[in-house]
Amino acid sequence: MDRLRWLSAAGDLESSLSIFDQMRRLRRPCSEFYNLIMSLYVSNRMDSDAVSTFNQMVRDGAIPNSRTFTVLIDHLVAAGETVRAWEVFARLPSMRVRRTSRQYSSLASGFDSIGRFDLLRSLIAEMRHVDGLLPNRAMRDALKKMREAGFVEETEAFVGEFSPDDRIGCVDDGSSDGDDEEGVVELKRWIDPNALARALEGWEPSEISELEGARIVWTTRLVCKMLRAFKNPETAWEFFNWVAYQPGRFAHDAHTVSRMIVALARHGLAEPAAALLLKIEREEIKLPFSNVRAVEAGG
């Protein structure tokens, strides 16, 4: 598999096909083998071969997954068939296939390029309320043009994710002389949520004190990444409650609540999950359907 990945990344179609044929003779390849070959065909504009590979995938009993449909959606958008890509995308939940940020970004770029802001508005609603995903950087231009076209209210929440706090004035590149502008938080170049979560797994008072002293500007995106990074759901729950009372403008929303309640449900932590359900009911927070299903499965 690794060798095929390397050859595929290098764009070596001939060698990739040779490896693929060898694997098919030895054993039934997994879905990712077919995905890599289809992606290579698409990048070389060999459309009929890509379709043939997909059909072969189905005949061989490999199950198309999110990556398979990402390749298909990217291809349709690149070919100017964004509406058809949207139709495929809309069918994925009924096929029990997870929709990804990459697929959303590809469709957003496609709708932007053809001026279909009505469909872009529907896409944003799906991203927020159905799949519970946060926007990534690739959607910035599409959202900007959508706002310029008059769809301001529909994009307000997502634009807030791109500019989560107006106190964030600059990013420290190491050349600052230390004279900060008053009222502006100067960020370090990056924060690694995984490393930070590992350091806090014990949730000791000294660790909490250090965290408070770091003056981190908490945003929905960062809190979600932290909650996902914690290995211990009880520590994640402690952090979830702690961050809600930190100075600043952060407040839990559907994204952070969804992330937390799914983690609690999956680990059978009934008491905190029940408390969070009360919060959801009291504040009328709408959970994405995919998260509701996960909670039901865990409960």
UniProtKB/TrEMBL annotation:
<dbReference type="InterPro" id="IPR002885">
    <property type="entry name" value="PPR_rpt"/>
</dbReference>
<protein>
    <submittedName>
        <fullName>Pentatricopeptide repeat-containing protein</fullName>
    </submittedName>
</protein>
<keyword id="KW-0677">Repeat</keyword>
<dbReference type="InterPro" id="IPR011990">
    <property type="entry name" value="TPR-like_helical_dom_sf"/>
</dbReference>
<dbReference type="InterPro" id="IPR044175">
    <property type="entry name" value="At5g66631-like"/>
</dbReference>
<feature type="repeat" description="PPR">
    <location>
        <begin position="30"/>
        <end position="64"/>
    </location>
</feature>
<dbReference type="Pfam" id="PF13041">
    <property type="entry name" value="PPR_2"/>
</dbReference>
<dbReference type="Pfam" id="PF01535">
    <property type="entry name" value="PPR"/>
</dbReference>
